[in-house]
What we know:
The structure holds 3 protein chains of 3 kinds. Chain A is mainly alpha-helical.
Amino acid sequence: MRPTLRGRALFLLAVAAVAVWSLAPFLWQMITSLKPAAEVAAVPVRYWPSALDFTSYIQMFKARPFATYIWNSLVVGLGTTALTTALGVCAAYAFSRLGLPGGRAALIGILGLSLFPGTVLIVPLKMLAAKAGLLNTRTGLVLAYTALNLPFAIWVLKAFFDRLPKDVEEAAWLDGLSRWQTLWKIVLPLSAPAVATTAILVFIFSWNEFLIAQTLVSRDAARTVPVGIAMLSGVTVYEVPWGQIAAAVVVTTLPVVAIVLAFQRRIVEGLTAGAVKG
Amino acid sequence: MTDHSRAGAVNWLYAAPALLVMGVVSLLPIGYTFGLAGEYHRFATDTRFWPVMRTTLSLTAVTVALELVLGLAMALVLWSPFPGRGLVRAAVLIPWALPTAVMAMAWRWIFNADSGVMGDLFFRLGLAASPQVPWLADATSAFWAIVLADVWKTTPFMAVLLMSGLAAIPDELYEAAAIDGAGPARRFWIVTLPLLKPTILVAVIFRAIQTFGLFDLVFVLTGGGPGGRTQTIAVYAYDVVFRYQELAYGCALVVAMALCLVLMTGLMLGVSRGRGAR
Amino acid sequence: MLRRLAPVLLIIVIAACGRREPDDGKVHIRYLASPDVGGFSKVIIDRLERAHPELKVDMVEGPAAGDARENMYSTAFMGKEDSYDLAYVDVAWVPKFAAQGWLRPLDALIAPEKLDAFLPGDLEGSRYKGKLYRLPVQSDGGMLYYRKDLLAAKGVPVPRTWEELVAAARKTRTPSIAGFVFQGKQYEGLVCVFMELVWGFGGDLLDAAGVVRIDEPPAVAALTALVDAIHVDGIVPLSVLTYQEEETRNVFQEGRAVFMRNWPYAWNLMQKEGSPVRGKIGIVPMVSGPGGRSAATLGGWGFAVSAYSRHPNEAFKVAEFFASAESQKLAFLKGGILPSRKALYSDPEVLTAAPHMKDLGRVLAGARPRPTHPRWPRMSDALQMHVSAALSGQEYPADALKAAAVEIRAAAAR
């Protein structure tokens, strides 16, 4: 069926609306970050700076070691993503395919874990990290984030595995592949879209996380981006340097945008390759 | 060739690493919280508990409902092929990729009563009498400001999850429906929606859980004001534990939160299963 | 691609493992503070380490927001960790921290006559149940800023009572210039503003005998005055309900308000080159109501010694060094940090650099700490919420304070 011209126009309008809705607040940060200090809080609102001014960016990198923060966030984010996806795929496969006795109860229990808001668990978490010598380390953050993300990862991946046709795997078993090989060689390639989606969401979670990072890490060497941004400050405690905060938001978003773009191809491929139809 | 379900107990090994991490990093602190919880009689006399609960529930209902509708629309738009789709998909992920704690600052700036861009936009569109709109000074508009900021941030999550669900729907079903003479709207109702239901359920449950525990957005944007009308249960529990140092009651609040979530999740699963059986 | 990437990622995780600090044989004293923007803390630490070679001070620069640091200290102390030897604490945290047993009493470590040099309010705010828990390093107090030029243009004298403030604001405000702005968002700052008026109207929240008096007529009169200023007199814009310190300062600095309640920090920023109100502003202590005396809510910071520190005596040495007159003078001249020592407000060097310090000294001499009760956070939250509800028109002033009093009494009784 060929879409009508009007349908096409409406569709493009919808695309534009989605893009504007998603980008507008971020673009506003970008504009704010490029304003000269005097125009940031100007009344009436200035929609475009009179001159592009990069002072906020310079000040932000001077004020805090943001290069270190970005590196830490990347390490923690990638580490969490790798660990969560690896453990999550194995567990979800087991729950979906291997007929675990008591598996249903365990799944519900896992879901139950995610019912607890992280905000209130930080006291015991910190004591635990202190005992394990994981305070002020990226490893500590990776472990905490992995645990917090696993319920989500397992549920999403299991839901996906459940919908995969079983005959391919059974054929693989008949061919003499072990369960491990089946998972690695057959199921994983088929579920690339779900794994990629999960990985992206997990990465973004760890990139964003603030409260645990602030609680477990109090040194620049292991500090992540959100906490770094919260440390931007004026000369006094009351001052809020809006320009610098906006600049920090822009700079720290760029790596994520790059990663999203890089993985984007992967998702699109996976989604459109009709992996499910085998 | 082995019967894969007979060796069930051994298959737990696949799930063991994930369970171990969750057990140590999530379950232990949760157990600790349960152990500390007490003073349950105070629920009866606590004048804050019910107002806070009401705010949290209405916030959850409104936010998740809006997100589902918008997320579904977004997923459908981004699912159909069009030139530049990869870029738009990446753009849509940006809100989710920004640290909540930091974006909450940005929203506070956008809703700023004096130099906020939101008031200025409303004024230019003729919807406000002056560009200085004190959004966060009024209980109702403050509530909607939180809803907007949360919906903006988390709709991409919904859309991505729903897209992975869309990927699993075989084209043949659409083709068959089209041959039966079903138009696009009808195909959406009889093919897309029913087959998307499991994904929708997972997405809604996870989002409901997250919104119920909403913390940083409220904390930064309104601080629970004005007059305590936007305080959520997570913010309250956090205050009780950290600011008031009433550990026993604070942990009891956390336990109550978890119970609410168990109830909510059970209800949603029950409703969906009841529908499915029909 | 994913499969090839996975091992690489795992290696990154393993490589990211933390390292321990090298042992240099010195006693390390750790504390958490706001980011050291002016760099003056590092200068003081350098001097200290030269004077005491056996000590090494690890200043951990925490988030700028005070409540974030309060919670970081709380989580550390709740776990009885020795990760901080000193706590750099706000005056409002002292009772809570002390009541939890997180701090070490300092009375045995310092001669009483040495304490006379500090501002009385700062000292009072450092005590809990008669014991000293903190050495004040930085003072802070609320005050009234006004626009000299706007008042002069209308021939209005600087107001000293609430009535005069309302009248002056009415005469000088215009559609684009508000009469009076203050911190009206629901947060600790609102309580600071409100308490200044309650004291100014002759009322109190919690008197010396521990009686809750916030629902008595003077307090109700103070809240009614504040509510009327918004809804009846129209001298205060409704947007103050969203203001913290910075929003308030921005409005005033942009020239869009005649009067402002704020802390001393705003002064330097507004007198900077390029500020629209530079040279046009003055400060006085907050106005008072009928039957009361002008008051300022005390803010301010100081060092307390952690009960879990393994080096309490060394930690106290560091606190003393920071509280010394030389260090405080340096912090003021380099970072604008207000001293807690009386003498510095008449110090010739200080006055040359900042003539307004004389006025400030007057304000801070009358500054009063908020009630030193271990349940203060609960009490403050109850008060914030109901005052905010009254300001936004959800509750009547008398009812709001009655409800607040019930909650505060319940908190006090627990």
